[in-house]
Records
---
Amino acid sequence: MRIRYLAIAILGTTLLVAGAVRADDAKPNPLDVIPDKMPFDVPYGAPIALDRANAVIAAAVDEAKNRDWKMNIAVVDSGGNLVAFERMDGAQLASIVVAQHKARAAAIFRRETKVFEAGVQSGNNTSITLDGSIASRGGIPLVEDGKLIGAIGCSGGTSSQDEVVAKAGAALMK
């Protein structure tokens, strides 16, 4: 009798697991969607000049100072190479490389780093396997006349604070 109950329990568990696996297989994979156009297809332009990079940083620093936030701010050219950097007094030391990483990722992937963060939050973790990506807000491409000329990266606060400061710098391009 016990063997019969055990066999029924095993069969029931097997059917439940098989049903769950089939249910997971039935969900569409968002990575299987094939867009008609290339996403984030912003053409690369001439690299940002030092005076423009410094102006972008100055706008970002002004925003950070107005909010009493201590930030590290990096501007890279269209190839992801550092052009200008500023560490505000008291800014977190670990955020120096993070700000540069955010700027570089925004430039080479031609998208805000917030896109990677959103992907991870939605369960699409493939973006974290891409060399050079960073799933944290605060990296924003700098686009002028429809061409990517560089990017700004900010770090030192929460990712939403970093994004606010980066947007203030990027607003100079509009």
---
Amino acid sequence: MKRIFAHRPTPATVIACIALFVALGGVSYGVATNSIDTREIADNTVRSKDIRNNGVYGKDLRNNEVRAIDIRNNTIRGRDIANNTLTDDQVDESKLQQVPSAADAARLAGRLPADFASTPEPVRLIGAGGQPPFENGAAASGAADLAPGFWKDGSGVVQLQGAVAVPASMNPVVLFILPEGYRPAGRVRYVVPAAPGVPGTVEIDSDGTVEVLAGGETNHLDGITFRVPATP
């Protein structure tokens, strides 16, 4: 009997064994139930190779915890950034480089270069087939002057050209009437060169009427431009 009690464990040994059992049992339980949390992981012991690829999601990261120093250079690509999430404040303009060409700029914007073309349409000559006729005896001045006409560029700006001769002492006089789509939103007036040696005044109304209010026998329309209202 005395021999049995002689080999009885001390209280310190019993406490140590209980602590070891609890520690081992807790880890085993965590592994078995797939519920190990941060309390069971020592600081700075989890490395990149311990994490399965594509296993960390945005919901696993606390807001504002990932900083620039946490991201390897040249690892973030366009597909990693949600559309329309970057603002001016997040872009360092000093790091931006010049776009090589307009075609590249259009491609970046998701549009074709043809969308930015502003090639003017052909000149519509007054009095030509299908175009507005001269009014009240007006006519092209001839000589070296351009034939009277008009056109609209890719920006929606109408431009006039040429010189118009009118019967002597006939002011004011309507020269021609611009068709719809080539008329200003409201009345506009221009001072134009006229012959012989006097300035003329040309008025264009919203109904398309092109009229010389004052001038000479020849009135030049070159340089007259105006923007037409946007098509709804």
---
Amino acid sequence: MDDGARMARGYVRIVAGAGFAVALLAVCYQVLWRYRCQNWGATPDEVALSLPGDELMPDADVVTTRVIAVRAPPEVVWPWIVQMGSGRAGAYTYDWLENLFGLDMHSADVILPQFQDVAAGQEFPLASGCGVMRVEGVDPERAYVLRFPEARLVWIFALRPEGNVTRLVSRNRIRTPVRSAAGRLGYALIMEPGSLIRERKMLLGIRERAERLASDRQQVSWPRAVS
């Protein structure tokens, strides 16, 4: 066998091995990890819960429901949510990463009064060329619904008092830009774990800020919350 044939066979083996590895990863993610990735911190009842804003995209390709328990009442959690946004109070995630895309995110550690009055129909511009964040619903201290038209995304926050904690629910309803089954799976493998990393950081950031504020105000002695 000449060198060219051996190189060709070696190339075929490499491609076949890479294809097998990708297929195995896809199967493992789908079977073992995807539910947990999509529903970090959520109980089965919370995953099935109907929330205001679900009706805005009933045919979503992907739905994630991620939840964290906060040792603070809803009125202390709420201000941190409604002030979020580009050029506003940031997103309490990884600012350096957000700003690589020009999103002008600078996570605030205090409540900013100028961003507290929100109403349905308001639009907050994102970075240049990234469209807007539109407020679709406001139920103070209960639910906050956003839509990102260009991103095909509806984002719902719900605050649910439960005993001595507030269960903060973050639900994303997403219509993916790809239509084939293989394309959707590839999209899921890349986007869903990435969104969990960012969203988990955001939820932890909101909890840290709200619990600190509740402690500073000495409203009540809340027991330790477990996500």
